């Protein structure tokens, strides 16, 4: 059995050969789960982490500032954000119109996912009609 994969294509990515990180913004349990899964990194340039734990004392301005900093980091390809936190900064989330980094709204332990609030899903639905799936 032969493979069409050559040594030069092994390990390449969709991001021009550079791997990208995931960032996460959520409550302590959500972020800790992802950190235990191995996504935690500290930027070599800025010495800032790719995660933010949000609790009752976290300022809205800190959430928004962190989210915006993730948007402009060239080492981040996906931002995972708990949907209830995305609701707090909905205008900023909806203002992001680029494909990278992709923004994925996720549920948390105390706040279930609501598809009607997900701005990315709403945009995707607007791109297709029911006839496209027949």
TrEMBL record:
<keyword id="KW-0813">Transport</keyword>
<comment type="subunit">
    <text>V-ATPase is a heteromultimeric enzyme made up of two complexes: the ATP-hydrolytic V1 complex and the proton translocation V0 complex.</text>
</comment>
<protein>
    <recommendedName>
        <fullName>V-type proton ATPase subunit F</fullName>
    </recommendedName>
</protein>
<keyword id="KW-0406">Ion transport</keyword>
<dbReference type="GO" id="GO:0033180">
    <property type="term" value="C:proton-transporting V-type ATPase, V1 domain"/>
</dbReference>
<keyword id="KW-0375">Hydrogen ion transport</keyword>
<dbReference type="InterPro" id="IPR008218">
    <property type="entry name" value="ATPase_V1-cplx_f_g_su"/>
</dbReference>
<dbReference type="InterPro" id="IPR036906">
    <property type="entry name" value="ATPase_V1_fsu_sf"/>
</dbReference>
<comment type="similarity">
    <text>Belongs to the V-ATPase F subunit family.</text>
</comment>
<dbReference type="Pfam" id="PF01990">
    <property type="entry name" value="ATP-synt_F"/>
</dbReference>
<dbReference type="GO" id="GO:0046961">
    <property type="term" value="F:proton-transporting ATPase activity, rotational mechanism"/>
</dbReference>
<dbReference type="InterPro" id="IPR005772">
    <property type="entry name" value="ATPase_V1-cplx_fsu_euk"/>
</dbReference>
<comment type="function">
    <text>Subunit of the V1 complex of vacuolar(H+)-ATPase (V-ATPase), a multisubunit enzyme composed of a peripheral complex (V1) that hydrolyzes ATP and a membrane integral complex (V0) that translocates protons. V-ATPase is responsible for acidifying and maintaining the pH of intracellular compartments.</text>
</comment>
